[in-house]
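Query structure, 282 tokens:
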């Protein structure tokens, strides 16, 4: 909402294009900012609680999220980490990493406030580690977007407070560029959830290899996958088309509302009720 509203506000106030119903689009951007101001900080609190939950119930996944191979304490929360060898860049399970992070941050996240807490390393588990690089970077990209949403909310709230919300073209561009990041963050969260769980379908109960139907051939599985991708791609295309059409159409005009109101069925005249005690021929 904030991104779409910002597009029309930017076009009108910054570029000077005449936009009908600009009040509607200004209100749209403000409503989006209000929602952002409320929900973005709450996401941090929820993420903190979820991090502890994962550390307690799926310690192997948490170790993959933090790229912890050996059990240790004071584990940093890496912001950036790269393999120390060329071969490591193509190995999703590379162990030797050079990272820049917050000292004790991962331990603090796992324990809920203790930077010296111990985190169990991936090498201590009997099962094979999940693709660590995928889980590690998906988690960081998701968290990074969450903090970006907080920055956008504070930025927009400050400009609104100063009475400069409609004139800040840079803010408008940032909101427009961030319009789809919420969807991207959700998908990254699912990547962390599903890839980080490997090699388990149900943590500690059933492995992925045990969940394969023995009578299913590779061709049948491929056809099923292609079918699902096709159906969901079609639904996504239709959704994008309908939403884009609604946005381009804008709010209904006064004339359109009047036509809709005039076309509503009206109740007919109420039937006359006979007077009590009187016959039809009186």
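Result returned for the query:
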């Amino acid at each position: 909402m904030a991104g779409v509203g910002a597009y029309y506000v930017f076009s009108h106030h910054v570029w000077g294009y005449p936009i009908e119903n600009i009040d509607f689009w200004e209100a749209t951007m403000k409503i989006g900012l209000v929602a952002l101001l409320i929900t973005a900080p709450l996401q941090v609190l929820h993420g903190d609680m979820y991090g502890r939950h994962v550390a307690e119930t799926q310690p192997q996944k948490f170790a993959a999220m933090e790229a912890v191979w050996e059990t240790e304490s004071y584990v940093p929360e890496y912001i950036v980490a790269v393999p120390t060898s060329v071969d490591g860049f193509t190995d999703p399970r590379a162990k030797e990493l050079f990272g820049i992070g917050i000292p004790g941050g991962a331990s603090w996240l796992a324990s809920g406030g203790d930077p010296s807490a111990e985190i169990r390393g991936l090498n201590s588990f009997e099962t094979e580690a999940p693709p660590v690089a995928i889980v590690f970077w998906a988690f960081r990209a998701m968290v990074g977007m969450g903090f970006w949403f907080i920055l956008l909310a504070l930025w927009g709230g400050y400009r609104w407070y100063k009475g400069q919300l409609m004139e800040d073209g840079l803010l408008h561009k940032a909101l427009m560029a961030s319009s789809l990041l919420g969807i991207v963050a959700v998908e990254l969260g699912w990547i962390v959830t599903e890839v980080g769980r490997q090699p388990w379908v149900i943590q500690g109960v059933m492995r992925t290899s045990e969940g394969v139907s023995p009578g299913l051939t590779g061709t049948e599985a491929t056809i099923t996958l292609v079918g699902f991708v096709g159906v969901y791609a079609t639904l996504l295309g239709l959704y994008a088309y309908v939403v884009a059409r609604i946005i381009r159409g804008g709010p209904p005009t006064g004339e359109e509302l009047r036509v809709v109101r005039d076309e509503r069925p009206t109740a007919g005249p109420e039937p006359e009720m006979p007077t009590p005690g009187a016959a039809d021929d009186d």
